[in-house]
């Protein structure tokens, strides 16, 4: 099984593990291969795609439990209960190992010594990379917000207005925690369903995209000529 992704004039082909890929560039009906390379996959994407079912199931159940608890209790209570449960487990395990060492007269030391000695501090390079990513995302968000609110492109601003109008109905039906619960369920269930029904879903998405493009074209035709998008855009 191979996964094919199209980015403009480039096509990326991944193998079954989605790690090794080949890239191709289409130019005048010709396919020009680009050097194959390895694509890193983030741990979050591996969990969502159920690459390791046990870890994905643990993450899904844990996140869903925390969100359901937040829907019924306050955030302070949820955090307190989580830390209390963690302390109960670690203290019990520490006392158990101490009793076993006293009975067996062994000197194994602290049961969590390997975790305590592990360096978990952020390096300067990691902090700089994180700060750079945050800065780039913040700059992009500020530019897009200014562009949409100041109506640089009327069509995009109308899209945002329609989305915000729909979100008012969503907010009236669900609160923030409920939306997070639904999003968590969708994030962990959508990728497996898409992998099984990829052909049918892609066909429906293409039809939906074509209909949306037709609607946008009709809307642009009704707009004044000064605010229409040029063909180059």
From TrEMBL:
Membrane topology recorded in Swiss-Prot or TrEMBL: Multi-pass membrane protein
Coiled coil (residue ranges): none
Entry annotated with the keyword Electron transport: no
GO cellular component, one term: neuron projection
Pfam families: Reticulon
Name listed for the protein in its UniProt record: Reticulon
Protein's cellular compartments: Endoplasmic reticulum membrane
Keywords: Endoplasmic reticulum, Membrane, Transmembrane, Transmembrane helix
Any GO BP annotation: neuron differentiation
Domain Reticulon: start-end pairs: 44-233
Organism of provenance: Xiphophorus maculatus
Gene3D superfamilies the UniProt entry points to: 1.20.5.2480
InterPro entries: Reticulon, RTN1-4
Residue spans crossing the bilayer: 60-93, 162-188
Keyword check for Ribonucleoprotein: no
